[in-house]
Amino acid sequence: MKSGPGIIIREAHFPGRAPIEAYGNGGFRFADMSHRGSLLCLPSGIYGWEPQDKQALAAGDFGKLFAEMDAVEILLVGTGVDLRPVPAALRSRLKEAGIACEPMATGSAVRTYNVLLADQRAVAAALVAVD
Q1: Could you tell me which of 128, 124, 131, 130 has the C-alpha nearest to residue 49?
Q2: How far does the signal peptide extend, from start to end residue (predicted)?
Q3: Positive or negative, the Cα torsion across 29, 115, 76, 131?
Q4: Cα pseudo-dihedral 50, 76, 28, 21, rounded to 10
Q5: pLDDT tens track, the chain, 131 positions
Q6: What is 13-127's CATH number?
Q7: SS3 content of the chain, % helix, strand, coil (to 5)
């Protein structure tokens, strides 16, 4: 994607797995970098992620995850400041793919992701940014 003369805007992507060092103020810090907005942490890397509706996540928001579903056993869903349930249709689609889904507040999801990542578990995380 190109925007303006000489400026190239690329999709936010870190090609590796890394613990999340900090969160808040609308973003995250990991691998000595920072990202403003939500994140999708997958075996192939960490991606900038903007679901259509953060209050009602849908299967369409997880295309990258489903492309890597063979490498993921558990998906942690950080739903923001408060815990919100994952919609039944999304939960069903994840179950069909063999992926356990655990919704929790973003802070809890970050901490759990870091522990499971350190244990080398087949974990992914969808983290909605919090202010």
Answers
A1: 128
A2: none
A3: negative
A4: -160
A5: 444 566 555 567 888 899 999 999 999 999 999 999 999 999 999 999 999 999 889 999 999 999 999 999 999 999 999 999 999 999 999 999 999 999 999 999 999 999 999 999 999 999 999 99
A6: 3.40.1230.10
A7: 25, 30, 40
Q: What is the residue-wise DSSP string for 78-124? A: E-SSS--PPPHHHHHHHHHTT-EEEEE-HHHHHHHHHHHHHTT--EE
For the chain, domain boundaries: 13-127
Order of strands, sheet of 100-104, starting from the edge strand that comes earlier in the sequence: 13-14, 45-49, 38-42, 123-127, 74-78, 100-104
Q: What's the chain's length in residues? A: 131
